[in-house]
Amino acid sequence: MKKPLLEFTPKGIYCDAAKVYLDPWKPVDKAIISHGHADHSRWGHQQYITHHRNVPIISHRLGEINVTGKGWGETFSINNVKFSLHPAGHIIGSSQIRVEHKGEVWVFTGDYKTENDGISTPYEPIKCHTFITECTFGLPAFKWIPQKEVLQNINQWWSQNKAEGKTSILFGYSLGKAQRLLKYLNTDIGKIYTHGAIENMTKVLRPLVDFPETTLITRDTKKEELLGNIVLAPPSAHGSTWIRKMVPYVTASASGWMTFRGARRRRAIDKGFVLSDHCDWQGLLKSIEASGAEKIICTHGYTEIFSRYLREQGYDARTEETQYGEEENETIVLKEKIEA
């Protein structure tokens, strides 16, 4: 039986012909990394290969690492296996990883979205035989409205809160979502304040994107300074002592999960804005169609439901277990020592 070009192993997705892993979740000798979120770029590998724009991100999050940057579409060979990185549109520096060997092409998408957010390099469809896709929002219920409309609603919400003399607290993941929000906040309304995790990551990304001015919240920041202004914070800050001194405030979350009202209630959020850095149902289907692939491997998310639907459409689709899908947990310890 012919060995597959990419295998799913206890350490991660492995290319035996090249002796290299893609986004491994256990320490390995050589890893090609799709993007900077903690579930895809783990600490402990001997060598990292990623896109140039992702180098400062993972270096900031992981510390001193041996990392090599590549350009979009730049082909590099490892043991006669050809690899190249292509825009995934998920966050800044996020890549799809194309693998070619003996006429066979696989594409590992990592995480991706097809809507151009204006700060990430837009998603690029890549032709292949086998397509490895996430299914984070692989249900027909997930259907995104255009980013422009969502961001207009966010600025209107902020303006209304200011008129009522309240501080607006907007939750978004410190890498990716926070910068997407920041880019389009209307500073004519007021000042933008930030949690330290978001301020530090945005500082890393400022050489790549022209962001509005922000002010870091410190121990010396008084709640009177925040009134009428907006605070960008990671979800982990909700309910913390850090946030209590900002009363009176109104909270909101920007996430694909805000599609469901129950998610907003469970998180005790006042307002939900549906804005995701992943594909919705139609985005997933159109990406698969554009790839031309006959074999589809569904990883993290609604894998069983999505793969069953694909099989009904005539695809050779199956699921595989991974340890992805945890970037939404801002409490992940990025430098925890992972056992080999």
Automatic annotation (TrEMBL):
May I ask which residue range the UniProt record assigns to the signal sequence?
none
Give the E.C. number(s): 3.1.-.-
What are the protein's GO molecular function terms? exonuclease activity; ligase activity; RNA endonuclease activity
Q: What class of enzyme is it?
A: hydrolase
Record keywords: Exonuclease, Hydrolase, Ligase, Nuclease
* InterPro entries reported in the protein's UniProt record: MBL, RibonucZ/Hydroxyglut_hydro, Xnuc_lig_assoc
| Name the UniProt record assigns to this protein | Ligase-associated DNA damage response exonuclease
Q: Which organism is it from?
A: Costertonia aggregata
Q: What is the lineage of its organism?
A: Bacteria, Pseudomonadati, Bacteroidota, Flavobacteriia, Flavobacteriales
